[in-house]
């Protein structure tokens, strides 16, 4: 069995590399979304058209400045480079938007489920209250029962009749 070298310890993490590149994926995503949004604007199309027309005009008319003669190979290379970067940036922006939409949809579903549960609970409570109200003695029911009792018990007069009798005795004009 070979012996481990003294400078390599397996029980400890390796020291970080000297030339490690670290980047914030959220910041990179935000920048890529800004670029993707800009590539889809009329402003970008206008300035790209101005650039291409000036490139072609300069290379066709200014004989001394022809850095890219007629087949415009350099311009095509620039377009290819732009397209090779634009497509992944646009896809990254779409993926990030899809993630945001998915989170929003999940929140909407959870909110809808909670609303439905609350509505079901309130409907059950309302049904229970309606049943309970059906069993509650109403004012008219109590009056009719008191009137029946007054008729059954001789000499029992209602408080309202007593008050009326007193007020008539005090003010005979109110009768």
UniProtKB/TrEMBL annotation:
This is Putative membrane protein. It comes from Saccharopolyspora phatthalungensis. The chain crosses the membrane at residues 44-67, 73-93. The keyword Transmembrane helix applies. Keywords: Membrane, Transmembrane, Transmembrane helix. Residues 155-175 are annotated as: Disordered. The keyword DNA-binding does not apply. InterPro entries: DUF1003.
């Amino acid at each position: 069995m070979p012996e481990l070298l003294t400078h390599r310890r397996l029980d400890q993490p390796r020291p970080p590399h000297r030339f490690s590149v670290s980047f914030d994926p959220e910041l990179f995503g935000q920048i890529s979304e800004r670029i993707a949004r800009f590539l889809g604007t009329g402003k970008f199309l206008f300035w790209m058209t101005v650039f291409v027309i000036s490139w072609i005009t300069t290379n066709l008319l200014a004989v001394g400045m022809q850095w890219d003669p007629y087949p415009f190979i350099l311009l095509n290379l620039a377009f290819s480079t732009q397209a090779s970067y634009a497509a992944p940036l646009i896809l990254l922006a779409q993926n990030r938007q899809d993630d945001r939409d998915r989170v929003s949809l999940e929140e909407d579903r959870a909110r809808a489920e909670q609303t439905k549960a609350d509505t079901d609970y309130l409907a059950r409570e309302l049904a229970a209250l309606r049943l309970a109200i059906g069993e509650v003695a109403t004012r008219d029911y109590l009056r009719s029962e008191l009137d029946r009792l007054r008729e059954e018990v001789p000499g029992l007069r209602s408080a309202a009749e007593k008050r009326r009798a007193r007020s008539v005795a005090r003010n005979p004009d109110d009768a």
